[in-house]
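Board notes, transcribed. Complex of a protein with magnesium ion.
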Amino acid sequence: MASKRAPARIFCIANQKGGVGKTTTAVNLAAALAVLGKRVLLVDLDPQGNATMGSGIDKRTLEKTVYEVLIGEAQIRDAAVAVESGYDVLPANRELSGAEIDLVQMQARESQLKQAISEVAGDYDFILVDCPPTLSMLTLNGLTAAHGVVIPMQCEYFALEGLSDLVNTVKRVHANINPELRLIGLLRVMFDPRMTLQQQVSAQLESHFGDKVFRTIVPRNVRLAEAPSHGIPGVLYDKSSRGAKAYMDFGKEMIARIKKW
Ligand code: ATP
Ligand code: MG
């Protein structure tokens, strides 16, 4: 019975560094969890609208988006779109870039998304929030609404530097705004095992963060990069690709982690 299921677990996919694989992770995790029988809402919290387009929704033709939801002019149920890949998307487009300014004038501005999500938490098993590459009011809304943060990262030298800013932000949000928030894990993406530096950084991550590093490693895989232009998540675009298999494994690993809570 759907009504007996526990309310949704909410996860932000965040990293203030640009182009590190947040959206690819958000879209493919949403699709993988849907394949595994979970009810999933993917919230696109980035004015770039990449998760929206990558899920097959034309961001230019939307009447209601996450923007109207954040400023209290729409409900998630009215703005969310069910996509063929088996999950729902709360879409975004450039309009969302105005939200930073609108939110400044609102009370409880960091909890707008949390409030909106509370209305639909019973409808889903997982709510995934694709954050923009900033530590902005939008990302703060994501962190305030979430139970956990998943950080995708490339195993490059400078990746570790940026990580401490994000980890500190997560700690501060945990201490001041959202005591439920925790770091779920670091996901190594676009991994190329032939590169010695990547192996070294990967080993450093494991020794420093221990079991906060997901066991799944997502390889650099061209099929994952091609999929968004077809509006289909990589896990469905070419199921036999190494990238698709890795994200399916990641979906299973997420489900297993949550069971331990
Ligand atoms: P932004 O900070 O702009 O939101 P992002 O962190 O969401 O970026 P993505 O858009 O997911 O990053 O990925 C950046 C680019 O890398 C995209 O072109 C994407 O298709 C490609 N990419 C992501 N993951 C992989 C992978 N495992 N293998 C190959 N290409 C990948
Ligand atoms: Mg993105």
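The chain has a mean pLDDT of 95. The chain is about 40% helix and 15% strand.
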